[in-house]
Structure formats: structure tokens, C-alpha cells
Write a structure and sequence with these properties.
Length: 233
């Protein structure tokens, strides 16, 4: 059964696979970032430590260590943003040379597909990479906001601005980290979307494996267990 319309080369299974890909991509973030969930994810647990980090800055002088950490966070977001931009450029280059991609796809699936089909599949990957790029750029900018606010936190703990500025800097740190995590998840699903070049079933399997990997890292990883550890009183 095929979809009626201009995309007649796509089967109904392709539509189901793509819908599953985007549905999973759009909802997994909401599930992971819920702060009131009974079983908290590693991202939510890290948010608590980010807020605690900012609350300790006021008592630290000089703040070279904090400045280095914030610089490293910004450099990480800048690296991933640059990598996404390069990947987007590579995807755009593939759109002008779909003949070679078509030959590779034919060898993999032992079937022929119009070049327009391959172009749509590549565009889906580019779309996810673009979403990741935008999230990384925004995370970089918000980490910059956080650095500025951290610099305004007074060293005098009795100053009423100390608590306010620490909370503001912490909230911005958490917001930037949330955008960074969304960017990473978009990259994961973009890599999974490459499986669509092989076929719809491959895309479904890749989406499921990507989902399992993300859930495991957020809820069943060694890193999460470490975050749950509390100091012995």
C-alpha cells in the first residue's frame, strides 16, 4: 500500500517509521526532564548539583575554578555546534550527489529507489542535525549568561544579592544544560535516521535502539548510581 500523492515512492511503512522517529524524539525529552518524577533521570539529578554548585560560588575567592568549568562547558557546546554545522554541510553536499548514495543503497537493500526518495531521507537527517545545532548554539549562549551572573555574585554572604544571584546563575546553568541535552538527543536520532537509507524496518529498529540507549544512560547507568550516592553522616 502506498501513500497517495506526490510521494508515491514511499510505502505506508515508511510513514509509520518516520512518525515513530519524530514522536520518540519529541517525547523522550519530556519524560527525562520531569523534575517531579518518582524515578529521576541522570539529567534531573545533575540539575540539583548545578544549583548547588552556583550556591557555593559566593564562598569561593578567587573563582578561577568556577570560571574554568564554565569555559569548558561553553567550549563543549561550541564543539558540538561546529560538528553539527559540518555534518549539515555534508548532508547538503549529498543532496547534489544522490547518484552515488543511490548506488550504495541499492547494494545494501538489493532494490532501486528514485533519487527523490533518497533526498527526502537525507533531508530528515539534516532536519534533526539542524535542531541539534540550534540547541547547542542556545546552550552556548545561556552558559555565557550564567558566567556573567556568576561574576556578579558578591563574596559577602551577608549581602542579600548573594542568594538571588546564586539562584539566577543556577537556573541559567540548568537551562543551558537542558538545551545541550536536547541537542545531544537530536544527534542520536539523526544517526538513527541514517538507517532509513536501508529501509523502513531498519529505521524502526534504529529508533528503538536509540531509545533504549538513551533510557539506559538516564536511568540505569553507573553514572546515575554515582549521582544518587549521598555522603555518610
Amino acid at each position: 500500500m502506498t501513500i497517495v500523492g506526490p510521494l508515491t515512492a514511499f510505502h505506508m511503512l515508511d510513514g509509520i517509521a518516520v512518525a515513530l522517529l519524530f514522536l520518540t524524539w519529541a517525547t523522550i525529552g519530556w519524560l527525562i526532564e520531569r523534575p517531579n518524577a518518582k524515578h529521576k533521570s541522570a539529567s534531573v539529578l545533575m540539575a540539583r548539583y548545578r544549583l548547588e554548585w552556583m550556591s557555593h560560588i559566593a564562598a569561593r575567592d578567587p573563582r578561577v575554578f568556577d570560571a574554568m568549568l564554565l569555559t569548558n562547558l561553553r567550549e563543549g557546546t561550541a564543539f558540538f555546534a561546529s560538528a553539527c554545522l559540518i555534518a549539515i554541510g555534508g548532508g547538503m553536499a549529498l543532496l547534489s550527489n544522490t547518484e552515488r548514495v543511490s548506488m550504495i543503497a541499492e547494494d545494501l537493500i538489493l532494490d532501486t529507489a528514485p533519487e527523490s526518495v533518497l533526498e527526502v531521507k537525507i533531508l530528515v537527517v539534516i532536519l534533526l542535525l539542524t535542531a541539534a545545532f540550534l540547541k547547542f548554539v542556545w546552550a552556548n549562549r545561556v552558559f555565557g549568561y550564567c558566567a556573567v551572573l556568576a561574576g556578579t555574585i558578591p563574596n559577602d554572604l551577608s549581602d542579600p544579592r548573594c542568594t538571588i544571584r546564586s539562584r539566577q546563575a543556577g537556573e541559567l546553568n540548568v537551562t543551558a544544560a537542558r538545551a545541550f541535552n536536547k541537542g545531544l538527543r537530536s544527534v542520536y536520532f539523526a544517526l538513527g535516521a541514517l538507517a532509513w537509507l536501508v529501509g523502513a524496518w531498519a529505521l524502526i529498529v534504529a529508533t528503538a535502539l536509540t531509545l533504549i540507549m538513551i533510557i539506559r544512560r538516564e536511568y540505569a547507568s553507573r553514572s546515575r548510581n554515582v549521582l544518587l550516592e549521598e555522603p555518610v553522616q
